[in-house]
Structures are given as structure tokens and as C-alpha cells.
Amino acid sequence: MNNALLSSEKNYWETPQDFFKKLNEKYYFSFDLAASPENTKCENFFSEEDNSLTKSWHELKGNLFLNPPYGRELRKWVKKAYEESIKKHDGYIVLLIPARTDTSYWHDFIFGKAQIKFLRGRLKFELNGEPKDAAPFPSAVVIYGGSQ
């Protein structure tokens, strides 16, 4: 097993390309809200240097994809997505996050406020575009906006 993949210091879990492709076939994403030039899934994206948390997402056009860093700051990302979804009227904000339903941010910003799709099994996230071992946690897709 890849110890780096399980490290608590690893906060960046690259979205599996096949998984993103299926999501994108439904939502046609125009913007990746947390990416790098090497792993972005959309032509338009915010990098770590851009600091997406300081941007106005509701001003962006189209549907937005977010696979945020999974560290201690995850609550801030989920809160931001929820708050921006209240302002955003022309599209969806779709998150790929760990299904840690016992956490306060799930109760504060997801349950009763978004559509949730729990994923069966464990995703094989990527590192530099290559699939790695299955994640040590379950995942969910959280969808803000519209009626799915």
C-alpha cells in the first residue's frame, strides 16, 4: 500500500478522470474551483495561489466543480460552497468530498441544504494522473443549486 496516499499530511486527492468524466457528462462544468495546472479538470480553474476561498464563485458562469483539499480546512470549503450556492442562481456547485457524516460541517452546511449522492465502494484517487490504491474513506458527491 502507498503510505503517502494514507498520510494525514496528504490533503490533495486528485479526482479520478473516469469519475470526473461521468459527472461532467451530466453537469458540463465550466470551472474547477480547486486545482493546479497539472490536475485541473476544466479549462478554467482556481489554483492554490489564486486562493479560491477569497473569490466570488456566484459571479462565475455555468456549473462549478470542487474537489477541495481534505485537511482541516475542509469545513471552510464546504461552508463557502453552501454560502455561494445561496447567491448563485444560474448553475450547480458540485463537490466531491469524504463522506464524514459525523462532522459538524455535514450537519451545518449539507444535510437539508444539498442533494447528496453517496458513492459505493472507495474511489481510487490519482497522483500525477495515475490511479493509486483505494481511498481509506468513503466519498460523496454534494450538489448545491437547482433541482436534481
Describe the model:
- This protein has 148 residues and is of the alpha/beta class.
- It has a domain at 33-96 and 110-121.
- It is built from 4 helices and 8 strands, in the order H-H-E-E-E-H-E-H-E-E-E-E.
- The chain has helices spanning 3-6, 17-27, 74-87, 104-109; strands at 29-32, 44-45, 63-66, 93-98, 115-118, 126-127, 130-131, 139-144.
- Strands 2-1-3-4-8-5 form a 6-stranded mixed sheet. The chain has a two-stranded antiparallel ribbon with strand order 6-7.
- Strand 3 (63-66), helix 3 (74-87) and strand 4 form a beta-alpha-beta unit.
- 30% of the residues are buried.
- Residues 1-9 have low confidence and may be disordered.
Q: What distinguishing features does this structure have?
A:
single chain, 148 residues, alpha/beta, 6-stranded mixed sheet, two-stranded antiparallel sheet, 4 helices, disordered N terminus, transferase, Phage N-6-adenine-methyltransferase, methyltransferase, site-specific DNA-methyltransferase (adenine-specific) activity
- Cross-sheet strand order for the largest sheet: 2-1-3-4-8-5
- What are the secondary-structure elements, in order, as H or E? HHEEEHEHEEEE
Gap between N and C termini:
37 Å
Main sheet properties:
6 strands, mixed
Name the average pLDDT.
89
Pick out the low-confidence regions. Answer: 1-9
Query: What percent strand?
Result: 15-25%
Overall shape: globular
